[in-house]
Amino acid sequence: MQYLVIAYDYDDALERRLKVRDEHLKSTKELISKGNIINAGALIEDDKMVGSTLFVDFENEEELDAWLENEPYVKEKVWNYEEIQIVPVKLLPKQ
After folding, report:
1. d(CA 14, CA 39)
2. Which of 4, 7, 20, 90 is buried most, with the most CB atoms less than 10 Å from its CB?
3. Rounded to an integer, what distance in angstroms lies between the CA atom of residue 75 and that of residue 17?
4. Where is the YCII-related domain (predicted)?
């Protein structure tokens, strides 16, 4: 099932984000190669990074939840886990 994930950072998350960014990017690239992450990018407000948005594909909500619980930005309190928005979507196939 495909989902849109919108994850805003905590207001004081910049230092934590930079600390675990390499780990986050490594795990994101692995999931892209497996097809679980379709696309991802930063949320920008007033020229400042304030969070992330991802299109993901997991078999079910349990797999989605397991990914989020182990995502470095969640574990290190970069993304405000309590306010992450998850919306089921159906993306157009790539041509």
Report:
1. 22
2. 7
3. 11
4. 1-87
Hey, what amino acid is at 71? E
- DSSP code string of the chain: -EEEEEEEBPTT-HHHHHHHHHHHHHHHHHHHHHTSEEEEEEEEETTEEEEEEEEEE-SSHHHHHHHHHH-HHHHTT-B-GGG-EEEEE-PPPP-
Distance (Å, whole) CA 8 – CA 63: 21
Domains of the chain are: 2-83 (3.30.70.1060)
Q: Output the tens digit of pLDDT for each of the chain's 95 residues.
A: 999 999 999 999 999 999 999 999 999 999 999 999 999 999 999 999 999 999 999 999 999 999 999 999 999 999 999 999 999 999 998 77
Residue type, 41: G
